[in-house]
Amino acid sequence: MVGHQVAWPKREAGKTGDVVLEAIGASLVKDEVTRLSDLNFKIRAGETLGIIGVSGNGQAQLAHLVSGLSQASSGELRLFDEPIADGVEALMKAGVGRIPEDRNAEGAIGEMTLWENAILDRVRSPRFSRNGFVDHAAARAFASIIIE
Fold it and tell me: Domain range for residue 113?
């Protein structure tokens, strides 16, 4: 297909570090329905946790749980061996990023500009607002950095 012998890439064994994210008996109940039950896992630095399943089997709820959009009904989630503080804001400060399953439904508001969407989760940050007013110049500069 490419006209020459293709060499297989050589992969070295990855090195793992300390536990970064841990679920200890975490469950999620929403609208009186158990969405996730008794989750237990540890993710170490350098590891990736892959979730496989048919749509609707809890992947989205797990993503919401570890990104702070939902709170565990029972059990515990720990980030760097500390209980995860309530909400998305605390997780963003800790360096947790989130890529939504459907960026049009959850990740962006189509009627808003790029710079407005870029600061949605950060609008209360002193970097982007002062005395309740959005700093448009700072927000546009941030959007330019993202574009670059």
Answer: 108-147
* CB hemisphere CA count around 86 (13 angstroms): 1
Tell me the two tokens of residue 54. Answer: 């048919």
What's the token pair of residue 115? 């710079």
Q: What is the pLDDT of residues 32-88, one digit of tens each?
A: 999 999 999 999 999 988 888 788 888 889 988 888 888 899 999 999 998 887 677
> Across the chain, how many H-helices and E-strands are there?
4, 6
Measured CA to CA, the distance from residue 88 to residue 76 in angstroms comes to 16
Our count of domains for the chain comes to: 2
Copy the structure tokens of residue 34. 């158990």
pLDDT (tens digit per residue) in 81-132: 988 876 777 787 787 877 787 777 777 888 999 999 888 878 888 999 989 8
Query: At a CB cut-off of 8 Å and minimum separation 6, what does 106 contact?
Result: 100
Residues 88 and 55 in one domain: yes
Residues 80 and 133 in one domain: no
